[in-house]
Amino acid sequence: MLRERKPSNMRFSRALLAFALLFLAGCGGKSTNPTSPGSSSLSDPRPVFPNVVGQPLAGVAAGNGRLVAVGSNGALKTSSDGRTWIGAAVPVDVNLRGAVYGNGVWVAVGDAQTIIYSTDAVTWRVASVPLSGVGFRGAAYGNGRFVATASDGVILTSTDGAAWTQVNSGTTNILWGATYSRGLFIVTGQYGTILTSPDTQAWTPRASGTSNFIWQVVDGPGGFVAVGDEGTPLHSTNGVAWTMRPSPTREVLRGVAFGQSQ
User: Fold this and answer.
1) What is the CATH number of domain 7-244?
2) Distance (Å, rounded) from C-alpha 244 to C-alpha 252?
3) Secondary structure (3-state) at 136
4) Sign of the torsion angle spanned by Cα atoms 188, 79, 113, 123
5) Taking the model in full, what pTM does it have?
6) Domain ranges of the chain
7) Model confidence over 189-209: pLDDT tens digits?
8) Which residues have CB under 8 Å from 11's CB, separation 6+?
């Protein structure tokens, strides 16, 4: 997530945080370890998200002074300020679930083994994916590599966003959340799954202390925070050892964001 704190970029980062809060506002509902996320329906296991820019949206990413939001039926919108959004033509019509920016390349992932990429957030191309029958759920970038998470425990990696290879995750659980920070990739998912890797090649399972689905993970000044079903909040200072935190809700928490020191 956007962590820039310079005064010249405060308006942009506040716009991203506001968008993230709108995204979270639509994340109520019940979900207990869904077993078939490969379908192209946003109704299950994902909730119906706020119709911020005319279509249900599932993810937003920031980079290079731009926001990219993705959603149902190939919806992809871009903005430079979080207020005015422009639709981009994409070569797919499946539900897009996540997006990330790294090293001058945008990547968006979605249902039906879909990964698309762009160098300008305007012209998008379909990436080369080495498998079929899975739905991609999350994406992250760090240490010169992209990571995409999917159903059936699938993790793909790429150095350019165009060509992808599969690595062994050691699990068949659905994988959803993904982030990179402090020299570590962290992936979360079904049945309390947390995996970490410094290089995307070897993945280590970490004890989460819960069997709930863990939807997303983010890093902040106090460490990593992950959220999930039954109001589950988890905290870690290093991404390796995780602790359950008290929660004021039992609702499903599907997203978490950090910006402007909070």
Assistant:
1) 2.120.10.80
2) 15
3) strand
4) negative
5) 0.79
6) 7-244
7) 999 999 999 999 999 999 999
8) 81
